[in-house]
Amino acid sequence: MKKDITAINELSHVMVVMPCVLTAAGISHQLKSRLGIKDMINIINNIDEAYDGTFKIPHSMIILNVSQSSKQLAEEIRFIKWYRKEQSNKNIVIYTHNHKVSILKYLSSLGVQVIISQYELPTIFMELLIKSLSSTTTFYSPMIEEIMQKKMPGELTVCEAQVIEQLFLGHNVTQIAQHLGRDIRTVSSHKRHAMQKLGLNCDKDLHVLSCEITGKSLFL
Questions:
Q1: Is the separation of the CB atoms in 202 and 208 below 8 Å?
Q2: Which backbone phi and psi does 98 adopt, to 5 degrees?
Q3: Which of 83-92, 136-145, 146-155, 160-169 has the least mean pLDDT?
Q4: Domain segments of the chain: what residues?
């Protein structure tokens, strides 16, 4: 408990990025009442404004909504990737009602700190948040953990994640092998294993997920 309190005291700032004003207000209230955070909370309702907020207050903890809408989801994932590149820490908490297995698994591969369902009780949210402050482990809320453990055989490896990212960009296995400097059979193996872990049964499933992640039209 003492370790958790120390971590809370060292928390410099929290940025709540939520399109829903009421949800953002509820999270802010929990942070203030449970963690004693008063003047360190910045509520942002537009994902585009989160970039400027991060520059103004670096190393903030980001509590980020992840949507079901493909367009909004693609923007949120772009922000996660950008933030993880700009900041060396894992201070991203995903708060989502998107329970699609492949999306949850992909979010996990991006190295976020917490993934929690919006259908969980507020007490669970705060417990996970506090635990995550003093740990480098990725935490999942009970609903999210049940979904991932039931349907997913394991975490993506670094190599599998690299191959999947290249596939999302529209590159084929031969192009990826050349780009990464690997044998085409190795890349094909990484693709196959990654698709199994993401719950994708065929290239069509991969294309659908790619469109959701990147915001591209499904019919292009």
A1: no
A2: -85, 105
A3: 146-155
A4: 2-150, 158-214
The pLDDT value recorded for residue 88 is: 66
Beta-bridge partner residues of 140? 115
Q: What is the CATH number of domain 2-150?
A: 3.40.50.2300
The 3-class secondary structure across the chain, one letter per residue, is CHHHHHHHHHCCCEEEECCCHHHHHHHHHHHHHHHCCCCCEEEECCHHHHHHHHHHCCCCEEEEEECCCHHHHHHHHHHHHHHHHHCCCCCEEEEECCCCHHHHHHHHHCCCCEEEECCCCHHHHHHHHHHHHCCCCCEECHHHHHHHHHHCCCCCCHHHHHHHHHHHCCCCHHHHHHHHCCCHHHHHHHHHHHHHHCCCCCHHHHHHHHHHHHCCCCCC
pLDDT at 81 over 80: yes
pTM over 0.70: yes
CA 178 to CA 209: how far, in whole Å? 24
Average pLDDT over residues 101-116: 89
Indicate the class that CATH gives domain 158-214.
mainly alpha
